[in-house]
Each structure stands twice: as structure tokens, then as C-alpha cells.
Amino acid sequence: MARPADPHARSSLVAAARHEFVRAGIQKARIEDITQACGLSKGAFYLHYDSKEALFREVVGQLEVQFEVMRTARENAYAELIGRGVPSARQASPFIAELQEIDAREDRKLLELLWDWRDVTDVLLRGSQGTEFEGVMWTMLDREVARVELECRAMKDAHLLRDDVPADVLGLMIVGTYLLVARRLSTLQEKPDFDHWVRALQTLIAQGTSGIPVAPPKKKSTQKKQNSRNAILPRKKKRS
Amino acid sequence: MARPADPHARSSLVAAARHEFVRAGIQKARIEDITQACGLSKGAFYLHYDSKEALFREVVGQLEVQFEVMRTARENAYAELIGRGVPSARQASPFIAELQEIDAREDRKLLELLWDWRDVTDVLLRGSQGTEFEGVMWTMLDREVARVELECRAMKDAHLLRDDVPADVLGLMIVGTYLLVARRLSTLQEKPDFDHWVRALQTLIAQGTSGIPVAPPKKKSTQKKQNSRNAILPRKKKRS
DNA sequence: CGTGTTAGTAACCCGCGAGTCAGGAACTGC
DNA sequence: GCAGTTCCTGACTCGCGGGTTACTAACACG
What we know:
Two copies of one chain form a homodimer.
Chain A: H1 9-24, H2 31-37, H3 42-48, H4 52-83, H5 93-116, H6 118-127, H7 136-157, H8 167-185, H9 194-207
Helix pairs in contact in A: 1-2, 1-4, 4-5, 4-7, 5-9, 7-8
Chain A binds a DNA duplex through residues 1-6, 9, 30-32, 40-47, 51-52.
């Protein structure tokens, strides 16, 4: 028995917060701008949230949930596939095809998600240092790197991956690429063709760039002055 | 004829600024902490610099110069090599070896530079949004991507690179990897073995990850429900 | 319609930190 | 030592923005 609260207050605050958050950055976003944008006064804000951070926490939380759901979806898809049995030796082709399809589908979903949240991820990447959100994006990225590393090792065990591919570097490479893509998304006006990206990346990772025959690895030679100890991998081709 | 200024004032302010800048982030670094760190008062600061930003500009400027020098060094090395003539057709091997060596050397130098400046680059990446420095790192990265793209096209023209390798994706991939590596450097206590990284990356880029024979590309099949129009590249291998 | 309760308002408080300035301190040349 | 000049200090102002609060508006219930 009393005046009822505006039912849209919270949701419109969150929406306005996301907007201001993106426009001004986490540190410079002002509560008064947010409340004005939804026709409320500063005082009203504190009826719904305890602090500026509490509001942002809601925005960031939504993002975290979405990405977490996506990551576990991929893990489950992998687990289900592997559970059906890894191909014993040489006719791995259908297995590979299915793996490839999972990756393509999940990568595409990931890009869609990055597209929807490109404004927020951008701010979290570039402007969260010194706030309570500074770790959010990097933690998510580290988790992705770890995931790729694990999958990579599993592939090696099943002999579906060259043995000398370093899992850590591959993880940084794949996730790093997506990181730059995500960053680039935030500068675009309209959604690009994600299939293009997904396929280009898959091919590039799987095949490399070599267009000419592979030179035989030099046998223990020490021609280079300074770079030849510690030969972890056989050197073969040029790079860029 | 008068009291001479402390000759180390500027340089010790810059040093202290870099330290505070890293500790607290650009936005939260306080002038008084910086001056106290070098035994000066707040007032003295304004004898040497007009504002907080002016001081940080000096720190960031040093970094920009260093990276610019490095980038042009690589460009020159490439130009010099290409100026000596691109191999006509099939005995490209020594040319490739030299290219590879340039890349290895320059990549290593780049990692050393990233190591020396890891604290500052980290702050610029994560905490510069909303400041005048927000574009610095991303501009440098974009320049690097553009460089890789150009080199990639040149390689293709000389038939040293598979024709279907998309230059833009390759650029994002290489630079994205270095970006994550740089970020990871800032969490390390001691300098890792850069040769390891450089070689792993070179091999991975050139060779890809495939450990099993390449399946023939499907001829225009439309098996996949949603992902098969717009086939920019032949699909071949799995990814991670 | 009157009363009690909650929603919402706007003026206020308050800490923080950038930038200022009047009053010394230190040094030089004579 | 003294005058003149520049360096340096630390207390000050001031705007900014988060959070508070005394007050008013809107509504439900009887």
C-alpha cells in the first residue's frame, strides 16, 4: 500500500549505463548523465543501486554469463565428440570433418557474440585498468587460451596434429587473432561476413602459408651467429 | 647568475612518472605521489611541466620513438633485400632463408623492446581509454598489421606465398599473437627465451598445424546447412 | 477524502586532486 | 657580505562528482 516503483527503472538504468559506460569509459561515466538519460534524478538512482560500481557490475555480469555459456557449449560439443571414440589410426577423415564443423560453428557464434557486445568488450579491454573490472576480459582470454592448449594436446595424443606444434604458442595465436578481430569489430558500422573470417582462419591455422617446397632442415649446422642454440623446432619456411 | 635548477629534476620526474603511471594507471596517478618519489614538492613540478599530461606525453613519446625506429629498420631491411632482386622462379631458397633471418632478427628485437617497455605498454593497452593516449597502442598495432599485409602481398606477387592466404587475416594473426605475448610478458618476473617464441611462431605460420594428409576439397558440395555459401577458401583441415 | 507509505527530487555535503601563489631558500656575481 | 635572481615549498583555491537527506509527489487502502 503505497506508490509503486517505476517498473522499467532498473532495466532502463542498465541500458543507459551501458550507453554512458561506452561513451565516456568506466572511470569517467557520471551517474547524473545516466539518470538524466532515463528521466530520473540522481537521488532515484540510489533507490535501485548502492553505487556506480553495482550498476556496472550488472552490465559486465551479463556479458560474463553470455561468454561463459558459449565456452561451456564448445567444451561439451568436444567432449561429446571425443566420447563417441577417437579414430584409431588412419581413417580419421570423418572425425576431422566433424571437429572442423564444431569449430566453425562455435567460432561463428563467438563472433556473433563479440559483435553484440563489441562496445562493452572494447571498453573493458581499453579502459578498465584500475577498476574492479580490469581482469574480466583478460581472464576470459586466458581461459580461452587454456582451452585451446588442452584441445591441442588432445589432438596430438590422437595424432591429429603435428607433434612439434607448441600448444602454448598456438593458443596465443588463435586467441590473439580473435582479440584483434574483436577490437576491429568495434570500429565497423555494419556486421561483416563472419564465414569469411572463420574459414580463412581455419585454413591458415591448418595449412600455414607455404607456397613453395619445404627445404630440408639443416642438420645441426651453426651458421647463424646468435640464434642457433636452443633449436626447439626445425626451421623450414619464411614467415611474412 | 642565480640558483641553478636541479639538473636531474626532469629525468627523475620522468622516471618517477613512469613508475607511478604503471602502479596506479594513467587516470589515477597523482602528481603529488610522483614529486614525492623524487623528493620534490608539487609546486616544483609545474616549473618543469605544464600539466600531468605533458609529463606522461614524454614517457609515451619515448616509447613511440623506439617502436617507430624498429619498424622502419625492418622496412629498410626488407627493401634492401628486395632491391637486390627477387628470385626469378624456382631457386628461391637462399632468398627465403635470408627473409626468414630478417624476420627472426627483427621479431627478436621487437620482443626485447616489448620486454623493456612491458609495464608501459600494458597500461596503454588497458588503461588509456578516455585519455589522450588511448590511440597510441592501437595505432602502432594497426601499422604493424598494415606492414604484414603489404609484405604478404609482395610475397604473393613473387610466388613465395600460397595464393589463397588472405593478407588481412594473416596480419591480424601475427600481430594478435604478439599482442597477447606482450600482455603475457607483463606478468612475468624474468625474461623468457625469446628464440623459442620466434621460431615456434615462424614454423607455425609457415607450416600450419596439419599432421595428417590433406583431404581433397569438396567440389561445390552443399552438405553443411548454413555455412557453405561464400566459400572464399577451400576448406581442408581441422583447426584446434 | 484522508492517511500512511513509498517513490522520487534537488539542494547539499564532502573528499579528492589539479593547478596557483606568496613567501622563503639557495645560489651567483660583485 | 650583499643584491639580485631563480628555484622550491606548502598552504590555498576551486571545480568535480559520488553519495546523502530533508522535502514533496504519487499512489493504495479504508
